[in-house]
Description:
This protein has helices at 2-81, 90-93, 132-137, 174-177, 308-314, 348-361, 487-494, and strands spanning 106-109, 146-149, 153-154, 157-158, 164-171, 192-195, 200-203, 222-223, 225-232, 238-247, 258-260, 266-268, 276-278, 302-304, 325-326, 334-336, 363-366, 369-370, 383-388, 400-402, 406-414, 417-421, 424-434, 437-441, 448-458, 464-469, 472-475, 482-485, 499-507. By secondary structure, the protein is α/β, with parallel strands linked by helices. The chain folds into 3 domains: 21-51; 81-250 and 499-507, no CATH class; 258-494, no CATH class.
Amino acid sequence: MEGIQKEGEKNMQNRSLKTGKKSERGVALFIAIFALLLISVVAMALMVMAGTETSLNSNYKTSVQAFYDARAGVEEARGRLWAGNPNSIAPQVFNAAGVMPVGNVLYITNPAAGEVVNPLNTAANNPYADNQYASEWGTNPPAGSTMTASVWTQAGVPIAGPLYKWVRVTPVTERSENMDVDGDGTIDGANALFYDGVQQFPFNPANPASPAPPANVGATPYQVFEVTALAVTPLGSQRIVQYKVSPTNLNLKFPSALTFDGLAPTYNAPNSNPFDMNGNDRSGSNPAPACTVPPQTAKPAVGVVSIADIATAASGIPANRLNHYLGSGGTPSIGNIASLLPSTENSVSSLNQLVQQIAKAGTVVTGPATQGSINMGSPLNPQITVVQADPNVPGSTGDLTLTGNNTGYGILVVTGTLTFSGNSGWRGVVLVIGQGSLQENGGGNNEFDGAMLVAKTLDAQGHPLPTLGAPVVNWNGGGGNGVYYDSCWIANATSGSNYQVLSFREISQ
């Protein structure tokens, strides 16, 4: 009986063990299925994350592409505002007075093949509508806005450019800025803003007294422009960026009509009766076509950098021609202007740096050169030209010779000897900085309106001198030639420089 009982207990234990093993196998299966589901969820999450990351990277890439395409657009317009650009838009931007009237708009369009880009069409279905204009000016872009095409070429052959769609060039006003710039309590929408290198202010060149410029305005204020570009990539990313630009202010200041920038100058003046040198502003017979500069106070006809050199310069003038040198001071009008020279014009290093700065803003020509080698410019298209030697070209010099019947416009820098002859003249700025030698041969009836400065900063081999040397001006003949200080022609000359960026921002439509 006892054996039977033990056998039954053993069977029950076996059954319990079998049941436990089956139960454990069920739990293991559940755990395996759960783990598989968990891995699947993680894998799916990773796939989603990877897809999201790829999408984010793609969106970021196209957004960055649109940003730099828009930057390329504003850079193209900034470069083409410069009169020296071979594809300059200056003739389309400026009127006969040399300004862009308020309300005028110029667009540079850049459509893809078979595409139409019309920023003036503000319909909702136009992806390239210029809706941003209204946020600044309160109206849609004028229907008569000027349109011109983008130009991207290499060696005269068109090449693919950036994918911006349009660039807009407009004058800047207090209204477009939504800012009372001059603090007079009103936001002026009628007058363009000008910049003198320090401050911006509303100004109307046609009526300089209304609004009146600040009392401390610089001698060369230039108009400020807004350059705005829209870029849209093929994937739909869109960016708008905006520059405010103005011609590079070279801060050229001239304390006299003819300045000898260095001690012990040599001046051999002509004996011609029609010859005059005049420091009274705008005293010449060739007025500039437009002027944004208030009339300047009278200056010496000849400026020197020491009291002793007043007599030195006067000794080179024929006794019967002393009264042909007019301007501030006595007769002849010769003054010590050393304290009036800006820091950019009072030492060898600063003058040589000035030459290089001007070279960056204009065109460099390797001498010896003639008028056929340089662009003489025009009243509405003044040029900036620097003639200098190239150390890599044997026999090159910084010399320039101008002969015959010709007139130049703009800034002319000659680092060697500048020789004029015949009926030659210049409207703007003439800087003979380097060898410091100017030679005028023969008569003629032309004249030099603006200012001239002569400084010797280099030795015969083109190396910088330790201190400023003695400048030389030999003026033979004379005729009707003369030098007349003219702040308008000085300002006109410097307007031929390239454009600097005053501010940059990204905006939304």
